[in-house]
Amino acid sequence: MAFEGLADRLQGTIKKITGKGKVTEADVKEMTREVRLALLEADVNYKVVKDLIKRIKERAVGQEVMESLTPGQQVIKVVKEELTELMGGEQSKIAVANKPPTVIMMVGLQGAGKTTTTGKLANHLRKKFNRNPLLVAADVYRPAAIDQLKTLGEQLEMPVYSKGTDANPVDIANEAIAKAKEEHHDYVLIDTAGRLHIDEDLMGELTQIKEDTSPDEIFLVVDSMTGQDAVTVADSFDEQLDISGVVLTKLDGDTRGGAALSIRAVTGKPIKFAGMGEKLDQLEAFHPDRMASRILGMGDVFSLIEKAETEVDEKKAKEMQSKMRSMSFTFEDFLEQMEQVKSMGPLDELINMMPGANKMKGMKNLQVDDKQLTHIEAIIQSMTKTERVDPSVINASRKKRIAKGSGTSVAQVNRLLKQFEEMKKMMKQMTNQKKGNKGGMNLPFM
Amino acid sequence: MSFFKKLKDKVSKQTDQATDKFKDGLTKTRDSFTTKVNDLIAKYRKVDEEFFEELEEILISADVGVETVMELIEELEMEVKRRNIQDTEEVKEVISEKLVEIYYGEDDEETVEALNIQKDGLSVILIVGVNGVGKTTTIGKLAYQLKQEGKNVVLAAGDTFRAGAIDQLDVWGERAGVDVIKHNEGSDPAAVIYDGIQAARSRGADVLLCDTAGRLQNKVNLMKELSKVRKVIEREIPEAPHETLLVLDATTGQNAISQAKTFKEATDVSGIVLTKLDGTARGGIVLAIRNEMNIPVKYVGLGEQITDLQPFNAHQFVYGLFGDLMTRVEQEEK
């Protein structure tokens, strides 16, 4: 694998230290070297890494390491604390102007995801705060950028202000605000064209829009896969426009996202949101502490726990557990459980969040296909009530009917029946072992 | 002949215009790299561990992959020992030599990787990549260039997912003066490409450029969809696609390696187009990709104009990156 987590990297060093009575400065040096590589591999800017390592060294050589039980863990803890501190607390608030409309400007390099993010943000404002935003298509340069925003507007059933590609973006922004006042929109989201931070003409245009519209927020949209250059870009945009926050996009990819740390360290501006997919509801509040774990490759255990907590109905989960224990778990329950898991997000995303999951045998290359779940769902839905409760009645002709009804094959039906039986056995063992376990976490898929 | 002189001779034989474009586009990159290396050499009189650590940082700051940098530093350390170099000034040449070696590999003559376009019959070029790297723009520019070369070009709007993507390709088709085969948004991309092939055949086209939706490489289903598109092309024309180009954003960091690996698995990538090299990004990650996977870079995007796509030339690229450094060494040699 190209990217090893810090935990993996440190394993060798930790082994050497365990059993020793004392951690020497040389040990710390060796460990911080691994930390440094892990951060660099995660695309954290080298200057930021340098400062961090210096601080970590100072803290680690001192008492903290000596007192700890496992020095390796202690180093990881120190590193994570430093990272979390650098990232700051969670801040996903959006400004509200005293006198509406609140104006938000979206800026960034080409291809960072400004237009999509504009759509997502509008959706977020309406869904969460019951706002009524006006989208403004001020990207007159990229071919069909206006069409793209218009299409998003249609999907959201929200108005989009546009004047075609011949108009001046500054005029578009001004007129849009006037229109928003007229039509009582409380938010105006201006989608500007992607531009290089070194393009003086285009940066001047943004400054002009800023002066004219005095936006309440200027969000810099940054691709989370950005490498060392993230610092230069963010710094330059911030210097010229004094941005108010950052939206990190494409975080549903497999990048470590060290750019987040670099941007934060250089600009001191909060990262407010994270783009987690191509759909319009896939914008999440940015969690600095989780990002710290991700950059270090330590798994996102917090996210997983929180997701399980919010999405899985506590009471239902308890019910389910007692059913599992008593072996009365049926296909009906299975179906219900699948719905709950699915509402938590794509399966591979969930598995990725489990710490150490990529180290587990077989898990490393495990690629969970959400389509398979759909097949399973279809098969169960093609069963009668009786069959779902008591699968033993399913004979050859019933199997044929189920396969036909679900558009699968008898072999697939057989496979599911067999898996279900095995799962039931496994669940019984599992639940017997750890009674009193928190509900909802020991789902059979995981 | 010194190493720099050889490289300079090679570059000067090539058209000045193209070299200038490269130099202009890479000004930022070259300046920062050269300044840094020179500062480093001025700072350290002796070649020691700290010197190498700082050199490591300079290379990493250009997004040259961590693994590649580690290999490089190791080789450098050995070379310095072997030649018994004490003075940091002398290391300069060794650094550039090693860097260039990665680009050229064993074979240092053939540095321009031309597109595989058939003399007779239809050549199919499939364009793939993650979201927002510039696939559609690259197709527009490529279509324009091929058209200028007298080729009959057809575009297939295979990005049926992103809002406005089909319109965007349409605009580029108009600008380049070529036909665009398209379906409605949300339709099956493989079907669009299939129709593209049929249309290109019936029009007797020379080149079919196939756009695809951007997808993050860890989305298994989307990668499978891409393999399917490739299979559809193969079924129609057994030796096609003649090229599968992976478009990479020069600002991308280490993730570019993961992109190259996964896309190569799914679609057997034959070349890379490195876009947005006109900013301050160094695009050093192509060094790592070349080093680890040996996928050649075929084009670089140096601006937003339709003419701003340049065939990649390793000599020019390296000269653009390290040209000033070399000139200075030469002057000092005199």
Automatic annotation (TrEMBL), chain A:
PANTHER family assigned: SIGNAL RECOGNITION PARTICLE 54K PROTEIN SRP54, SIGNAL RECOGNITION PARTICLE SUBUNIT SRP54
What UniProt notes about the protein's domains is:
Composed of three domains: the N-terminal N domain, which is responsible for interactions with the ribosome, the central G domain, which binds GTP, and the C-terminal M domain, which binds the RNA and the signal sequence of the RNC.
Which controlled-vocabulary keywords does the entry list? Cytoplasm, GTP-binding, Hydrolase, Nucleotide-binding, Ribonucleoprotein, RNA-binding, Signal recognition particle
Compartment(s) of residence: Cytoplasm
The EC number(s) this enzyme carries: 3.6.5.4
* Residue stretches making up the SRP54-type proteins GTP-binding domain: 270-283
Check the record and name the InterPro entries matching this protein.
Answer: AAA+_ATPase, P-loop_NTPase, Signal_recog_part_SRP54_M_sf, Signal_recog_particl_SRP54_hlx, Signal_recog_particle_SRP54_M, SRP, SRP54, SRP54_GTPase_dom
Record-linked NCBIfam families: ffh
Per the UniProt record, the source organism is: Alkalibacillus filiformis
Q: What class of enzyme is it?
A: hydrolase
Q: Could you give the subunit structure recorded for this chain?
A: Part of the signal recognition particle protein translocation system, which is composed of SRP and FtsY.
Record: residues binding GTP: 108-115, 191-195, 249-252
**PROSITE patterns given in the database record:** SRP54
Q: Which reaction does it catalyse?
A: GTP + H2O = GDP + phosphate + H(+)
Specify the domain of life of the species encoding this protein.
Answer: Bacteria
Q: What is this protein called?
A: Signal recognition particle protein
Q: What is this protein for, i.e. what is its function?
A: Involved in targeting and insertion of nascent membrane proteins into the cytoplasmic membrane. Binds to the hydrophobic signal sequence of the ribosome-nascent chain (RNC) as it emerges from the ribosomes. The SRP-RNC complex is then targeted to the cytoplasmic membrane where it interacts with the SRP receptor FtsY.
Q: To which protein family does this belong?
A: Belongs to the GTP-binding SRP family. SRP54 subfamily.
From TrEMBL, chain B:
Q: Which top-level enzyme class is recorded in the Swiss-Prot or TrEMBL entry?
A: hydrolase
Supply the alphabetized keyword list: Cell membrane, Cytoplasm, GTP-binding, Hydrolase, Membrane, Nucleotide-binding, Receptor
Instruction: Give the reaction(s) catalysed.
Output: GTP + H2O = GDP + phosphate + H(+)
Does this UniProt record's set of keywords contain Signal? Answer: no
InterPro entries, alphabetically?
AAA+_ATPase, P-loop_NTPase, Signal_recog_particl_SRP54_hlx, SR_rcpt_FtsY, SRP/SRP_N, SRP54_GTPase_dom, SRP54_N_sf
Write down the Pfam families for this protein, in alphabetical order.
SRP54, SRP54_N
Instruction: Please state where this protein is localized.
Output: Cell membrane; Cytoplasm
Mode of membrane association: Peripheral membrane protein
E.C. number(s) listed in UniProt: 3.6.5.4
Coiled coil, from the record: none
Domain of life according to the entry: Bacteria
Enumerate the spans annotated as SRP54-type proteins GTP-binding domain.
296-309
Sequence positions that bind GTP: 129-136, 211-215, 275-278
HAMAP family this protein is in? FtsY
What family classification does the UniProt entry report for this protein? Belongs to the GTP-binding SRP family. FtsY subfamily.
Q: What role does it play?
A: Involved in targeting and insertion of nascent membrane proteins into the cytoplasmic membrane. Acts as a receptor for the complex formed by the signal recognition particle (SRP) and the ribosome-nascent chain (RNC).
How it assembles, according to the record, is: Part of the signal recognition particle protein translocation system, which is composed of SRP and FtsY.
Name this polypeptide is given: Signal recognition particle receptor FtsY
Q: Which organism is it from?
A: Alkalibacillus filiformis
